[in-house]
Amino acid sequence: MAGNRDHTNPSALLNKIKEFTRSLVLDLCNGRSPVVTLGRYRNHCSDPTGNCGCGSDKHKGVEVISLRRDFHAHRLDVLLRVLVIVQKLLQENKHGSKRDIYYMHPSVFSDQTIVDRALNDICILLHCSRHNLNVVSVGNGLVMGWLRFSESGRTFDCLRRPSTAHPVPIYVEDVMDIVSVAKYILVVEKEAVFNRLANDRFCDTNRCIIITGRGYPDIPTRRFLRLLVEKLRLPIYCLVDCDPYGFDILTTYRFGSMQMAYDAIFLRVPEIRWLGAFPSDSKRYQLPEQCLLPLTTDDKRKAAAMLSRCYLQQAPIWRSELETMLQSGVKFEIEALSVTSISLLSDEYIPSKLQGGFYI
Amino acid sequence: MADLYKSSLLYSDQLLCYADVLPPSQVQARIEVAVLNFLKTLSSPTPAISDLALINRRTSNSHVRRGLLTDVSSVFLSRSFSVRSLMRPNAAKAFIRVWKVMEICYQLLIKGKMVTQRELFYKLLSSSPEFFASQLQVNRSIQEVVALLRCSRHSLGIMASSRGAIAGRLVLQKEPEQEIVDCTMCGSSGHAITGDLNVLEKLIIQSDARYVIVVEKHAIFQRLAEDHIFNQIPSILVTGKGYPDIATRFLLHRISKTFPHMPLFALVDWNPAGLAILCTFKFGSVGMGLEAYRYACNVKWLGLRGDDLQLIPEESLIPLKPRDLQIAKSLMASEILKDPYREELELMVSRSQRAEIEALYCHGYNFLGKYIVEKIVQANYL
Amino acid sequence: MSSSSSSSSSSSSIQKLCRNLIGSAVQRCRMSESLCRLSVLVKQSVESDRPMVQITISDTGIRSCLEFKWLDFAKSCVLDAKWDGILTVLTTGLSDEEIYQYCLDLKEHVPSSRLKRLTSRPKHAQKFSGTEITLCTYESIDNLVAGFTWFLQKMLILKIPKVAVELVVDRANISGSRCDNLFIVGEDIFCSSPKSNIECLVAGFKDYVLKHGNTLDKQCQSCFSNSDLIKIGTACESECLRNMEEVVEAVIIMTELPESPSPSCVRASSVGTQDFLLCPISPLLLSSLATIDWKSFGLNFKSSAVDGDGHASIVSSMHQRIQFGRNLIKRTVKTAMDDLKEKYEGVLLSLHAVEIKNYAPDLAHTIAGLILSSNDVHFQAECISLLQLLPYETFDKKVEDCIREKIITAIQMNDRNPQRSREAAQFLFEGESSVELELEEDDVEEGADSWDI
Amino acid sequence: MSSSSSSSSSSSSIQKLCRNLIGSAVQRCRMSESLCRLSVLVKQSVESDRPMVQITISDTGIRSCLEFKWLDFAKSCVLDAKWDGILTVLTTGLSDEEIYQYCLDLKEHVPSSRLKRLTSRPKHAQKFSGTEITLCTYESIDNLVAGFTWFLQKMLILKIPKVAVELVVDRANISGSRCDNLFIVGEDIFCSSPKSNIECLVAGFKDYVLKHGNTLDKQCQSCFSNSDLIKIGTACESECLRNMEEVVEAVIIMTELPESPSPSCVRASSVGTQDFLLCPISPLLLSSLATIDWKSFGLNFKSSAVDGDGHASIVSSMHQRIQFGRNLIKRTVKTAMDDLKEKYEGVLLSLHAVEIKNYAPDLAHTIAGLILSSNDVHFQAECISLLQLLPYETFDKKVEDCIREKIITAIQMNDRNPQRSREAAQFLFEGESSVELELEEDDVEEGADSWDI
Ligand SMILES: [Mg+2]
Ligand SMILES: [Mg+2]
């Protein structure tokens, strides 16, 4: 993972920060008010022609933050404040969380999302990933299965107990010595399903690695997954709820998120295949009527918006499954598959899907 | 009578009600006793549907126990109970829900399986849709089964994940001759505490630490772990990531029982929620159901406290939010909150301000470690 | 039914008055210790141009004195052009020395001067008691006779012991006076063994129901042929109020209609109460009835009648006394209902119990599931024996059915005696009990995230 | 102030008419190339019972012909009983052979027949130009004289070059004719070096402001004693419209009031515009002014006057031409404002700039933080030198202050020349420049839910 971008080591970043500061001072001395120009990145748009080039890592247009507008002034203020903190972190070689940064000036930042955006702005400005700034997320992901690796000298030996959960490492760049005898990687949307598979001792009998991001995956989970895919070259499957949010989580794994579009190339896992749950699974596995919940208005709106995302042109089958979901008007959760038998997922569902190649 | 209980200092442990962590066979046996009781009453000369006596989980049934010989206080539910009756108007469905949940748990126990609450919901939704319409009803019914059988939810075969993490001078071993986890080597996110209470109960714990530091927030925990503060002060770090779950409290309780002379310190935000989190570690809470009471630990309040405010720049003090006031109100109403904790809470309310631990970072990221050391050395805790 | 009901509904105010007077006469007879006679004489006179009818109601019961007080018919009756509003009353008690004579002028507006005592008549030391009330009207004699016939026929249902009833009609037509003795009570009444009032009422009503109800002149083979279908609850409650004892007797008859009654049977569709009433339902009675918790018997109280799925009729034989305590009526009816419920299993279940009963299959299924899914044979054996099943009967359906039956029985029994289920619920594992609280559904506070001690 | 304003507000319609006529006369004089004289003669005649006053306004400016068209005073004037609505006008141009004579009857309803041309008078080959307008009124001569005095005094403020103004009052009282030459313009006007109109206006207004404003007869030592406090912006814009050039001159005077003006100074509390106007603010002018984006100057436009924290007065010396382009007025005022803003640093900052300026301390603190918290001394030294601070001045506060000043300067400069900040922003670390997208605040997509990646 290291060296994905040029000049992202702390001293290079510190130099960039200094250069930026210098240019600000220079502008001021020339009577120009501070202006920051940021590339605009997006990982999807609603261009139906597919010529939008959203998939590339080039920026689309720029954003100019200056003092011309009030909200820009505030944004600049926040950006600079966060930059001071980042400079400190880099100089002291410390790591801080987004939350740490937020609490440095809670009255100015007023909301965590403001800090998040400033961090994204700084990443774009300095051409680096967030972890390069020494800003870490609180890790949420869990991993288990036929895997062993070390992070900063500490060994995570999942091999000895493949059905025991381990937290996903936060300093993914320090992950080394990855050893695995797994045949595939399974990504599950939620912890409950992860726990189900752990309780079923699924990994004891199936040579695989299971990862969950507990909902929308955080950066360490996605980077770790991406690292595993790069190092191990294993097929990777994803199991999400059959609802618009599950689908969105799926696309986040594959295409990245809009917020982190500038970094999508380092975070997305284009190889991921959708294992389930498909709308058609409700019939195949005879889910009782009650377990199919109607799509809410919000669900429908979200699904309709997702249908127009340009990147789905690369995944037409995914798109048509989403269309089917929208047309059927119902959704269901993975847990609903446990209705007939508590271990259906481990005993039948996943094995049969993998054997039959029922993934897309 | 209830008042007498409340005022009595000589409250014996017998009157406490809490849920036991039981092996499956014992839970099974308790369910069987419930069935036999039901059938006995039903087949008696004056047949009746026997009511279910649940430990009353209302706040009004909570009491404070103060140890005479130890420093530990806790909240607990006394033997006052509520009745689930089939014959009561508007209660028949809830009555049957208890039995339905018990039936599924019984079958799970026989199979040796665990389920999540969500899976349980779907199972019940598909088998008895007329009784279960929402997850909430399932959750409540589970709580009632817990209150009926007086065993932990986990013992019933219901999985819960734990959010808690632990790090520091602690070595954990699941069973003798099994893999050893050295918590100084767990990285900054710490060792994830398992939700499996049975595992936690059997855990073999070794430590050369002198203190346990309970941290409200994961981010602070991470910072302290990254700084290896447990090497500066020989200590164990624990976080529940906000309000602690049962497993986290259970493990903390086990540590404090295993090492009775190891003081426990809490580092929480200076706001009512921070105090409430501290109190949950310290006393337990009614909201957590029947399982929560026995894991009370004598946690001391290290920081942040009112006299730390001098360390915090004015701009980092945020006004109290309505939610804070709500929590403050419920804390104030509790008889367990004594001075000087009560005074601290009053100070928060009167200043109408709150401060987060992170506010100390204005003195640099190393400051937090110094702060903790200084407080411990000066015995500056409540 | 239709003819009688129409005659009843269109009965004139004079007829209503007469029914009240007859009701009073019956009561006087019943309060007397000896056999009594009640005569109604309807006599047409041709003295004037308009054919006038003289009605005389006489009885040999105890002396009358008080019941005229409530003869407050001035408002509805006297304005009728067919009657001068004047009643002549003769009455004497067994111990009286003379026959008292009154004139009641209902036209009189001042109530106190309505009743005038006239000179008493000598009794010549004879020992008898009785009352004779006479009034004259221009009402058509045919209407009057039809009304009296219908009314007295219904009265017979009551099987009032020791009272003979006769209706004598004397038409003064051109071919001379003719006398019809239309109504003579069968002798069995006088010979029957002494029974309580209430027993007589029950017998009478039962006979009535088993006959073809409303029409009296037609027999319907398809309904009420079986007396086993008739369920009867009775109650007789009394109360001392201002030195006067008041007695209310209630008889409740419930019949189950065959599922598809023959279409010729009018009864099926019109089981009402009106036919059985000796008097119109008074507002007092109505309001008393309205306060009964009919729901607890699984019934609905509707307007002036009580209906429960069309099966239940409520019949009252209240005697006319305006001072009746509301509570007394209520209590009596309630007791009669309870009596009925007690005697017959599973009837008049409260709505609540009916609802609860719906849950029985689910609960039985769950409990049976718990037993049968167990891997502990001793536990299973113990359950089977508690259920008093034989070991070889342990196939699923049998266990479940047995439990369901027992649950239903328990529900029914507890509905009759609700206090029984109140006995302290037991802790599962200990004998001690403490403060008890009853839970409503979703009653428990959930502490979700909030910290409340 | 109070006296003058009251005389102005209560001035009769005849006075308003006369002010317009005088305004026209001034304009004719200004358009003439030579020195001119403007006389106002007020003469009381005793020929009739009512004392009549004859007003003659004469000037030696260019010939008049068109400005009468808009003398559309019929509606407001003629109905006045004090005036017959008739104006006699004599006018001739330098090149004219005769003196044209008109009679303007404002009572006439048909506008086209309002102006009648009378027989011209011979000019006897003399070369002069000028106009004389005469009207008679029953107005009180004292009122009229007071009004003219006040008006002409204010006119003097304008320092109209090359125009001498006189007011002659001839009272025909009993003691014979008396002639008061009330108003003679000082000679300095004629001798002054040739100045542009606008320079004269500025000089006049400045004198006026430095005198004690409204009252003219009192000196206030506490305000406006220092001409440095007066900021003046001017503009003169012209426009060709239908072969006619229109010129608008605007002078904007801004004064800073001392923080606590002496209470005796009425000026402090009543800086209005009315005193400076030669004519009432026309709706056209008002609406033109209203369309100016006063906010961009940090001002609010209120009803008929412009107020900015009570400091700003807007003064216009528009010449009366009904055809004035709205945009021309607007443009002129705007240019004058910009002129003022340009000349004086930090004044008339837009609301936006004022708001943005609030960020300056924070931004300065943060940028100073970036410099001072750096562990690279060379970098720090470089920044210090860029800021033109001496190395020993690098204590935090000094750096921060310096940066703040620079930010404020930059904000002020950009507010004056908003186009300057528009220059294409450059990427810091890339050479390429790209399409510039302006993002609205809500344009930035935020993740639908609370997850943050
Ligand atoms: Mg989901
Ligand atoms: Mg907090």
TrEMBL record, chain A:
<dbReference type="InterPro" id="IPR036388">
    <property type="entry name" value="WH-like_DNA-bd_sf"/>
</dbReference>
<keyword id="KW-0238">DNA-binding</keyword>
<dbReference type="GO" id="GO:0000706">
    <property type="term" value="P:meiotic DNA double-strand break processing"/>
</dbReference>
<dbReference type="InterPro" id="IPR002815">
    <property type="entry name" value="Spo11/TopoVI_A"/>
</dbReference>
<keyword id="KW-0479">Metal-binding</keyword>
<dbReference type="InterPro" id="IPR013048">
    <property type="entry name" value="Meiotic_Spo11"/>
</dbReference>
<protein>
    <recommendedName>
        <fullName>DNA topoisomerase (ATP-hydrolyzing)</fullName>
        <ecNumber>5.6.2.2</ecNumber>
    </recommendedName>
</protein>
<dbReference type="InterPro" id="IPR013049">
    <property type="entry name" value="Spo11/TopoVI_A_N"/>
</dbReference>
<comment type="similarity">
    <text>Belongs to the TOP6A family.</text>
</comment>
<dbReference type="GO" id="GO:0007131">
    <property type="term" value="P:reciprocal meiotic recombination"/>
</dbReference>
<keyword id="KW-0539">Nucleus</keyword>
<dbReference type="InterPro" id="IPR036078">
    <property type="entry name" value="Spo11/TopoVI_A_sf"/>
</dbReference>
<dbReference type="GO" id="GO:0000228">
    <property type="term" value="C:nuclear chromosome"/>
</dbReference>
<keyword id="KW-0460">Magnesium</keyword>
<dbReference type="GO" id="GO:0003677">
    <property type="term" value="F:DNA binding"/>
</dbReference>
From TrEMBL, chain B:
<dbReference type="InterPro" id="IPR013049">
    <property type="entry name" value="Spo11/TopoVI_A_N"/>
</dbReference>
<keyword id="KW-0479">Metal-binding</keyword>
<comment type="similarity">
    <text>Belongs to the TOP6A family.</text>
</comment>
<keyword id="KW-0799">Topoisomerase</keyword>
<keyword id="KW-0539">Nucleus</keyword>
<dbReference type="GO" id="GO:0000706">
    <property type="term" value="P:meiotic DNA double-strand break processing"/>
</dbReference>
<dbReference type="InterPro" id="IPR036388">
    <property type="entry name" value="WH-like_DNA-bd_sf"/>
</dbReference>
<keyword id="KW-0238">DNA-binding</keyword>
<feature type="domain" description="Topoisomerase 6 subunit A/Spo11 TOPRIM">
    <location>
        <begin position="211"/>
        <end position="376"/>
    </location>
</feature>
<dbReference type="GO" id="GO:0000228">
    <property type="term" value="C:nuclear chromosome"/>
</dbReference>
<dbReference type="Pfam" id="PF04406">
    <property type="entry name" value="TP6A_N"/>
</dbReference>
<dbReference type="InterPro" id="IPR036078">
    <property type="entry name" value="Spo11/TopoVI_A_sf"/>
</dbReference>
<dbReference type="InterPro" id="IPR034136">
    <property type="entry name" value="TOPRIM_Topo6A/Spo11"/>
</dbReference>
<dbReference type="GO" id="GO:0003918">
    <property type="term" value="F:DNA topoisomerase type II (double strand cut, ATP-hydrolyzing) activity"/>
</dbReference>
<dbReference type="GO" id="GO:0046872">
    <property type="term" value="F:metal ion binding"/>
</dbReference>
UniProtKB/TrEMBL annotation, chains C, D:
<dbReference type="GO" id="GO:0007131">
    <property type="term" value="P:reciprocal meiotic recombination"/>
</dbReference>
<dbReference type="GO" id="GO:0000793">
    <property type="term" value="C:condensed chromosome"/>
</dbReference>
<protein>
    <submittedName>
        <fullName>Uncharacterized protein</fullName>
    </submittedName>
</protein>
<dbReference type="InterPro" id="IPR034566">
    <property type="entry name" value="MTOPVIB_plant"/>
</dbReference>
<dbReference type="GO" id="GO:0030674">
    <property type="term" value="F:protein-macromolecule adaptor activity"/>
</dbReference>
<dbReference type="GO" id="GO:0042138">
    <property type="term" value="P:meiotic DNA double-strand break formation"/>
</dbReference>
